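In the previous chapter we treated chains in isolation. Here, by contrast, the input contains two separate entities that must be folded as one system, with a combined length of 237 residues.
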Amino acid sequence: MAFAYDPGMTKRVTVSLPDDVAAFLYSAPNASALVADALRAHMNRAAATEVVLRAVGFEVTDAGREHVRGPLSALGLAPPRLAASGVTASGEAG
Amino acid sequence: MSLGGRLGAVLDQAGMVSFARGDARVAELIVEAAAQQLFVGVPAVALLVAHAAVRGDDAARARLVLLTALPAVRVLALTEAEAAAVANPPITESLDQDLGRAHTAWAAETYRAYYATTDVRSVPARLPPGQVVDLAATPERHP
């Protein structure tokens, strides 16, 4: 069974990629499907991470996640206050 | 260094050792970071200290290997430029030979991320309390 992307449900997006990643993408038979799969894996990594951690015995709870949710959520609003001057790197680690 | 996303927290060696011993609180930080499209940084020097702390404990060592393989975790390498920067923090402070925490603090400052630990008393003094996530504030939980 072949999967096809409905053009009516897709968006054309232009991105800049490192040379090696672009070369890999050009070699793929269906670059759009490859990108979509990779991004979906990225989008679902919290669930995937939790599955892995539970499988090796970690008991991940909502209460525990709640403890760190607030501070991490605040990063979207403002970075943590920095004590040191002269920090030049941006919060974006990329 | 490209990490492919925003770093939300950096884990020190106390947090790593807790994870290696099965403490769920560190696991919860990682899952929540992933849910918010953030990464958790693992500074290479702190990772070395953590590995040394659990040597002889095969299960703990295996969990440390797993930690660095998780999709929401990024190991923060130590290049020659970073080594020089870590050794010379902006605010004069004795490293007390605790290079793992020095690398962690430097990474937290550089990436404007939280310093996450299970031993808040060991956090370098130059970091403000608002930049520290105290994972030990909730009860320790092991399988």
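Chain B touches chain A through 53 residues (CB under 8 Å). Chain B has a mean pLDDT of 90. Compare these points with the single-chain example from earlier in the chapter.
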